[in-house]
Amino acid sequence: MKNILGSNLTVTLFGESHGEAIGAVIDGISPGISVDTDNIDKMLTLRRPSGKISTARQEKDEYSIVSGVFEGKTTGTPICIIIPNKAQQSKDYTKTRGIARPGHADYTAYCKYHGYEDYRGGGHFSGRITAALVAAGAILVSALEKKGIRIVTHIDSLGGICDRKFENYDNDITELLDKAFPVLSDEASEKMNEAILEAKEKLDSIGGTLETVITGLPAGLGEPWFETVESKLAYAMMSVGGVKGIEFGRGFGFAEMLGSDANDGFRYEGESVVTTTNNNGGINGGITNGMPVTFRLAVKPTPSIYQKQETVDFINKENADIEIEGRHDPCILHRAKVVVDALTALVVADMLIGRYGTDYFTPKD
Ligand SMILES: Cc1cc2nc3c(=O)[nH]c(=O)nc-3n(C[C@H](O)[C@H](O)[C@H](O)COP(=O)(O)O)c2cc1C
User: How is domain 4-361 classified at the CATH fold level?
Assistant: First the structure.
């Protein structure tokens, strides 16, 4: 029953959607990192639902850091972040106890925890838990920026509508960092919003893909075989509820290419080795080659939809229909963006600390 991610830098998640609080514990962090509360607030705001395209559940996400930070800097001992839940409406769930929401974890949680699970609002399986992940990861996002490493995710496609591809990483990253709806093309953004509202009107939900880029990583990061950069990122990303696929660089597209197109040629640019294309997404043999690391995630449509659906009542052991109440996102892509950024930062920081030591982020002067 593990809720821990990482080897050198670890993050543990705790809490339930309708319990007293959710939170995260970060261990193995370098001492001396300035804790940028503005960035934590900004990333929590980007994850928070807003407008007609998101759930109506409004949580302020007022967090407290109860350990591991002294005078604004990390001490190097475990950091515990607590975010109280304030806007629960548990009656929506007590009525339907035992009626499994199709596509959600109600039935599988019951099988695993033998009925002792806190089922309200999806309990520990709720998207709500990602707020804690975002608060934890935000500390590392700022620390990585100071090391020249930038991470950003955009909605690559939604319901078949595609955003434009990255053109200039630095400009595009800066443009995306503060966007509540993280799409580069205004035209695509408008169409995607319309598609979400259309799905919502039909009491349905909609999915798509997210694309992430990490720039500024040194070459030589990652281990062969089981701790490759791909395995580490895939392990983390596939833990996020609703994420159903991952590909690095051209990913599944490689299946239709010839070697002569797929290979990224090498060149010296001054003293740096670069590649002429980046089909392999900055990774060769599981190790970074110094080019931007790129990956895409497939995110499924939100499972909780308001249409009548076929299911079972696993308490009374009979077939049933379900008409879901409660507050849900018709699409989770725009909210998942900062979750992916935060998680990427935690994975990258873990790998950097593994290679360069616990003091990697500690200021040298
Ligand atoms: C940021 C975020 C918000 C989410 N919001 C909802 C939601 O409002 N309703 C819902 O049914 N699922 C939501 N999900 C998805 C569920 O958490 C997820 O589908 C569920 O845990 C089952 O996991 P699986 O889809 O990976 O099988 C959200 C996920 C994320 C990352």
Answer: Chorismate synthase, AroC fold (3.60.150)
